[in-house]
Amino acid sequence: MQYMLLLASAPGDGPAPGSPEEAAEMGEWFAYDEMLKSAGVYVSGEALHPYETATTVRVREGKTAVTDGPYAETKEYLGGYYVIDVDDLDAAISYAEKVPNVGYGSVEIRAVLDVSAMAG
Question: What sign has the CA pseudo-torsion 99, 104, 105, 107?
């Protein structure tokens, strides 16, 4: 089963950009990627540009509204994701607890819905 790990953290949490701590954490991210690939569970994953660069589109009553910023005001913002293919939720949790930013951010786990299986 495929699970998406949605990686979030609050602005200002984690290492400062350009700091030695950020460089060290990047090494942890590369090692995490390699661990997922070596285990054969990696499907995809990417980091996202900062939340300030988001654009949100809504269509209501036929009218399109485009706004700068994320779709919702929250304390934590989506910073990236992984899609992994594992046996069950317990396995997904075991990979989520190893994500480098889990100590100051959060990882939401969502099962990927196989819509093609629903087609008749």
Answer: positive
